[in-house]
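Subject: two folds for Thursday's group meeting

Dear M.,

Sorry for the delay on this. The cluster queue was jammed most of the week, so I only got both jobs back this morning. I'm pasting them in the order they finished. Each block is the input sequence followed by the predicted structure tokens. Could you check whether the formatting survives your parser before we put anything on slides? The first protein is the one we discussed after the seminar.
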Amino acid sequence: MDWNKPDVWDMLRGEARPILLYGMGDGADKMLRAFAEKGICAAGVFASDEFVRGHSFAGFPVLHLRDIMEQFGEDIVVVLAFASQRPELLARFSELRRRFPFFAPDVPVCGEGLFDRSYARAHRAELEAAYSLLADGQSRRVFRDTVAFKLFGDIGVLRRCESPKDEIFGLLAPGGGEDFADLGAYNGDTIRELLHYTGGRFSSITAFEPDRRNFKKLAAYAQEHLEGKGEIELVPAGAWSHDTQVRFSAKAGRNSRVSGEGRETPMRSLDSVLGGRRCSFLKLDVEGAERQALEGARATLTRFHPKINCAAYHRNEDLFALPLFLHENWPGCRLYLRHHPYVPAWDTNLYAVWDGGTP
């Protein structure tokens, strides 16, 4: 890694061509705040044709790309300001990258600050330590390319390290007797994913979901598809290091999270909910609270050594802090990193299996 190379923010700040944001909403708001922090000016906003309805965003009229080109010409810079895993949008991003200078600067889902050159330099020792813990070549490629993407905003670097989930689930080898704990169950999507690999069989499922509307969808899914197949416990709470109450910003989607604003929401530790019961497969996707949720699963991890599927992309530090935390506390686990198709670097997950265990 060239730690002295200008990062994407440096490149955009020095850009003389018009910089156009592609996208609206929360991601674009965050991007414009980062632009203001870095002294970068946006010249306009455009959206996919199906989302252009004559409205405005952040003081800019939301235009079609053809209108942008009529106004600014073809010598423009495009900055992606939303996230997607949809194949048709990933193909569209690649097409835009072929036509224009195209960047997807990394802004964190949670927390403050940016993963820029100064951040990478400040955490270089931790990044290198985490890299050294990874168990295979693909994990190390994902780590290198993810760091490069975060620094330089090139989706080509990110997409070359992606892999399908079938590959990592082949390594995890979930079976029909799993006691599955799903922290951040959303509407049951990860449960459906797990059962795809187990032929619909399981021993027990314990699922946490703090958002009320998501929980209703989860409960409806469980009632229709899971009843009578094994033990089910649905927990209307977020995952945390201990049982408590925190303010929770509920957005009825994947981005619901612990916040300084919002509704007082119960939070539970996995150890407390299980009360000593077995867990063989632990999934954590808790919108930036992964470290706290792992703290709350200490006894479970120490006793049962479950396979782990942990989101590692919500906070700047997740890429290095989560593997370092797992290694420090449970040095017997082997750590793997995978990025599944998503732009920007969402769905980058840390997986763990245990020496002497399965697989």
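Second protein, same layout:
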Amino acid sequence: MPQLASTSLGVINVGLAQFAEAIAAAGGRVTQLDWSPPALGDRTLGMALARLTRHEKVEPANEKAFAAFLGVSPVLRGVGTAGETLANMGERMLLHAGPPVAWHDMCGPMRGAIVGAILYERWARDAKAAQKLAASGKIAFSPCHHHGAVGPMAGIISPSMPLWIVENSAGGARAYSNFNEGLGKALRFGAYGPQVLARLAWMQKSLAPALGKALAALGGIELKPLIAQALIMGDEVHNRNAAASSLLLRRLAPALARARLPAEKLAQVLDFVAGNEHFFLNISMAQAKLSLDAAHGVAGSSMVTAMSRNGVEFGIRVSGLGERWFTAPAGAIDGLYFAGYGPADAALDLGDSSITETAGFGGFSMAAAPAIVKFVGGTPEDATANSLRMRHITLGESNVFQLPALDFRGAPCGIDIRKVIDTGIEPVINTGIAHHDAGIGQIGAGLTHAPLACFTQALAALEIEVNA
């Protein structure tokens, strides 16, 4: 006691900040701990969480799922056409981002992208006829995720569209994504004007065949080394892909030069890829999908294997819970807007690109990309803090993808629904912002979070599943 009385004491305050303020006002040293009760203080949810902690089925299942995720060796294998490549892709079917959603419930950008896809496929003469066809029930709509694919923002994939093919060289499984159109007025943001449709037609007829020839000559491109290098160079391979796109072009250019393309066609291909810093995004998404699919379907696992949004709902899938989606209303995005636009113009959270965060990129790897804050808002310190916070809700770290700002520790990955509920930390996502009306396109970019309600539903379902 005498020693204690002679020591300069400090106070750690847990909970209400007012207690800390009173101590500080009296001249005391106080540290405010940012804490909230597990499971949001919900007793029923907290008991379910306790029963699933150190569970005899869940722990080994997570080890198996996480090891499968880390063990994937993704290779950019080639280029295909959606109608010929994707399983169960119907002749009059359009794939979209996020959980299932019907035409009459879709947000404006997704409706606009669907109108554009119908015009691109020449199923209708004009936008009015395309809208009528979409509402008629004669077009089938299905999530990209149900076909082994992903698409950014509206995520629309139609039968004639070219796709990237990413293959696991360790097992042969494949995942797919469409091609990136660039920023601004693009189909994925709901724009469908003549310029958008002309670009899509050129991508189908010229860009895709040229890139297919180059990849065939190369025998594929290993993606893990490329992404690892891009992270060290300042990317997070969701909203910043400047390094990854450049590294990809460096690999493709010699093969394109040897493909005996007409000089003007070669120049157009090189100009397009070089001028689109987001070109690699769709490849990043496909390799993330491939890796997470390898972890899916492990009975008892609490690892999240997909996060996606359709502009109306946010949905997650969990390894041990089959093909079910656990959904909550899509959230707003806090971000930076192009001149003339603001939050009142924005659509809600949208797109399959949050598959990158699910795999440990994007918001989870923002510490590697301090320049991203100029695009989505915040400060470099905020970017690092986001990566550090995500460590609290993940099963581990990448054994390949390192973050220089964090002493080259691996990117946090393997979201555990139990840890999300325990800490109350919602997975962070950086994303583009589309206008809420069809036909306008991108108006900004920013940050959002996966809603906690998705994880509470999944936790309740997992407890039933492991005790069945």
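Two things I noticed about the second structure. The mean pLDDT is 94. The domain at 70-284 is CATH 3.90.1710.10 (Enterococcus faecalis V583 fold).

Cheers,
T.
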